[in-house]
Design a protein that fits this description.
two-stranded parallel sheet, five-stranded antiparallel β-sheet, 175 residues, alpha+beta, single chain, 7 strands
């Protein structure tokens, strides 16, 4: 596998190197993207809104052109196929399978289960959605630590020579 993911994956639209440069930047920065104490990282996005909800959110942002939004929605449709893999991460993380996590959660109180299984908490980062220029991206990142404990937000970031800077945050309600 080169710098592109295989068919039905996000690498068809944005190369995997670009995707992981942003993910690795978020992991290296810690808060607000993730809780740096928690070394657990879900390999998929547990907060996966439908394309319709995200298209409304993207359309409300005047930063992106209609062409950018169309490009981002193409990426969004491939998000269910995206899984973070250790091979592309610059930081060693305990990757937790999203599918395994949700199958174990059945029949348990979500918050209590997370607190018991992952005492330091668990982080997640969505697949970033890039503008056509690859100079801007939207992603969701968060942290969960138990009942009524955690945070998350959508971040709009801009690429700079030093990395990625947050230019706007849409915070989730407190869990």
């Amino acid at each position: 596998m080169d710098n592109e993911l295989q068919a039905n994956n996000p690498g068809q639209i944005v190369d995997i190197t670009t995707i992981y440069k942003l993910i690795n930047h978020c992991l290296s920065q810690g808060k607000p993207f993730i809780n740096p104490v928690a070394n657990n990282l879900i390999d998929g996005n547990p907060i996966n809104f439908g394309v319709e909800e995200d298209s409304l959110m993207l359309a409300s942002l005047t930063l992106f052109s209609k062409a950018d939004i169309t490009y981002m929605l193409k990426q969004k449709r491939l998000e269910p196929h995206f899984r973070i893999t250790q091979q592309f991460l610059s930081k060693n993380a305990n990757l937790v399978s999203c599918d395994t996590l949700f199958s174990k959660l059945k029949g348990h109180n979500h918050g209590n289960f997370i607190k018991k299984q992952y005492p330091s908490g668990i982080n997640h980062i969505s697949m970033p959605l890039f503008s056509l220029s690859k100079q801007y991206a939207v992603l969701h990142a968060g942290y969960e630590c138990g009942p009524m404990c955690g945070y998350g937000a959508y971040y709009i970031v801009r690429k700079t020579p030093q990395g990625w800077n947050i230019i706007h945050t849409f915070k989730d309600p407190v869990y």
